[in-house]
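Extended Data, panel c. Modelled sequence:
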Amino acid sequence: MAAELVRGQNHPLSRNRIEIRISADVPVVAGATLADESGRVRGADGVAHPGAPTLPGIEVSRQAAAEHRLAVDLDAMPAAVHRVSVLIALPATPGGPPRFGALAAPRAAVTGLDGTEVAGYTLTGLDAESAVVALELYRRRDAWKIRAVGQGYAEGLTGLLADQGLPGAVELARGIEEAVARGLARAVPARTADTDRSRRTAAPVTGPDLPGTASAAASPYGVQPPGDTAGRPAASDGPAESEPTPGDAARPPASGGPGAPAAATSAGGPVDYTHPKRRQASRPPAPEASAPADGPPPPVAGDAAGWSMDERLYNQVWGMFEDLARSTAACRSAVDFAESRMEKELDQVLSDPRSRLGSAGDAAREAAQARHAQLVDQAQAVLARDLAQLTAESEVVEPALPPAYARWDNPVWHGYQVPAESPMAVRLGDLHLPESAPLRIPMLVRLPLERGLWIDSGVPDATPFEDAGELRHLALQTAVALAARLLAVHPAGEFGVQVVDPAGSGASAFAPLTGAGVLDAPPAMGAAGVAGVLGRLTERVDLVQMAVRGGASDALPPGLDTSRQLLVVHDFPHGFDDRAVTQLRYLADEGPDVGVHLLLVADREDAAAYGPLLDPLWRSLMRLTPVPDDHLADPWVGHAWTYEPDLVPPGSQVLQQVLIRVATARTKRM
């Protein structure tokens, strides 16, 4: 389990390829210094920052963001480097917070490449500081350790860098601030030949009356995959009824927002809204695949940063999500501007008695309407171009996705083999916007799940189902498909599924799981079955929590199953008494941290008798729907994304084939 550090505490590091995740309430600058054994940084080439984001063994974000992911490969670190200090600082922006003491405490966490947290540190006690060394990675006898530092500097980056013995600290701090200012001005870094992709996902909608006023939201992920957050998403780490996206936790944008002006390039060219971590392929395309000199390069699957192909695909999917969000936001903003401009011009015509009537008034009205139509046409043409590029990319990326990210109709499932390692994320469904209905972006969330899932079986206001029972059955099928996917993407024996079906009404839907023999036990029925399952899982959570807090993980009772567990609860709250409801709420709150996850299939109206008692439960779960629904809200640009579940195609046997292979692998492992 992850260690929660306090200032000055150290912790061993058992892996050398890691991520360092930074999260804050406002956009911050993230960087790192590489120091020798005495703790001295020898020169500017020992500092990774937005202006120079890549050094041997480490890569940081190219802009300020509320979420960061720093990629670290300690095996690639130069032999002379004995100390890596991870720093964060507040950008010097007008109106921005001048000190960390005015904000909620930021947090730094060290994770494995699979997202498993190794150690975390919340930087409490800050006051006048505007720059702080959060964590330190240091060598001890050819091994690496983590130390929680929390050393802040009221003088900002200048004081921090000078304290590490860096010559020219003032000049370097000024250079970092200039690089950050450039990033904030354009939301993403300017394209360069060796880093960013040459594809432009949104150009400003400009014209004689609208000079460079296209709007775009800044990346909420910073360097994280689509999170480059993670990525949020993201991405957090996933969509919620009021904070979705394929990912990770919702954060405010690094800059800008809907309706915020985006700066044009110095040459007057189009603004590049491409996700900063989506990079141009390192090798040129084959001659037969070359794009025209004036057009975008052909799309390539895995054309993003990352240690592995899975991570590159994950980052690329999230980049597509952000590109679509930005392009759509730019179009909507331009259309809104055109509407407001036309209304203003028409008001001016009507307010002047001399031009209100006659041919002059008619000509003015026609001119205003013509300018409006021109601006709207320009905006829609740019969006159509961007959608065509994203659609072409989706057609390349979708077939290349691994099983964890792929739809059930993807041929990759026909060659499925039980994996040896857990993936970094899993697909929950698809997302799209009204302007891009044919284009679907995979909704990926990081593993292990940080929140439980709730499949809403309630009948929405507009539904094609006249029979509520039919919708409930579809909700249960959605839950079964998700449970089967989670089983399939984990190594044999590392993930288990338990089912609570008090009335036994879901027997037919659960048949693929029970028939293949992949459940840890038959579905629990009746009040006694509910009490038994909840009691065992509650006891497991209590024991693991006590062992972790007491530093005695090896003292767990013999035979205790420590694999991750998914509890599928059908037809809640039928069969639940007050004690069972309390235990379920406890599992939803405390279970994810110790490997117990909840998948609830329920109609909230059925639990109305409990009143506000269950409100915390509903809020803690990620709400999904068995039918397309636009309930996922984008907190960065205000989009309402339509979620579509990923169901097994009718008549397909792929689910049974996959579950049989999972069951066979589990049997061999026993």
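The first strand starts at residue 3 and ends at 5. This feature is highlighted in the accompanying rendering.
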